[in-house]
Amino acid sequence: xxxxxxxxxxxxxxxxxxxxxxxxxxxxxxxxxxxxxxxxxxxxxxxxxxxxxxxxxxxxxxxxxxxxxxxxxxxxxxxxxxxxxxxxxxxxxxxxxxxxxxxxxxxxxxxxxxxxxxxxxxxxxxxxxxxxxxxxxxxxxxxxxxxxxxxxxxxxxxxxxxxxxxxxxxxxxxxxxxxxxxxxxxxxxxxxxxxxxxxxxxxxxxxxxxxxxxxxxxxxxxxxxxxxxxxxxxxxxxxxxxxxxxxxxxxxxxxxxxxxxxxxxxxxxxxxxxxxxxxxxxxxxxxxxxxxxxx
Length: 295
Known about the structure:
Order of helices and strands: HEHHEHEHEHEHHEHEHEH
Strand content: 5-15%
Strand order of the largest sheet: 1-2-3-4-5-6-7-8
Number of strands: 8
Oligomer: single chain
């Protein structure tokens, strides 16, 4: 991997997706019934059709307008929308109707709120546990400005997995997510383990933004230094021409090679591939990490 630009006009064969199957309609209709947002839709996730066909989705709470503007993300930025008090219950009802046993909940950044949305995460976790017996929950949160009391609020609700992404290597942080930093994100992951050493932590990075292999290894080691348990690695795909340009397509074999090299650093699981995203096959990744932990 190098930082050199490429003229990238067509998707390589390994990145092409088929049309959505009819089974995706039930998920779409259920989300519409409860008037819910998903990161699948708002972030233009390329896995949307596959996940919907498997009757799963990543619920996005606290609206669909983000108070931060990251160079890679398709979610619109602006003033945060009013918080809907019944949204946690609607998320729980939708997850129940879809028959989910592993639920992923994320949100836009809400720097405008006093608690930056931490309380809403906790309420959503509690609503899911009330509605679905033995549900397993993964949260993917903003950094909450590394405020310990806000991280404590989410940790106390006891999600099985607490995910917070660093997104890219240290050198590229300012262009990829100018209102965040690697240092702050690592502090978040460190705090989670300090507050609850048994809580599974997770983070993710994208490739193809101009990072070097050495920088990827450096980022992985930084995550292990704060005891991050699970790492996801995927291909960056620009949502539009207005977003950060793609520098390189990464071949599938390289993702496998990278995972095999990084896993021995101490991660319970490294899930890597062109279409891997934070919540892609999240339940299976958690199961794999859990098996590794007891082996």
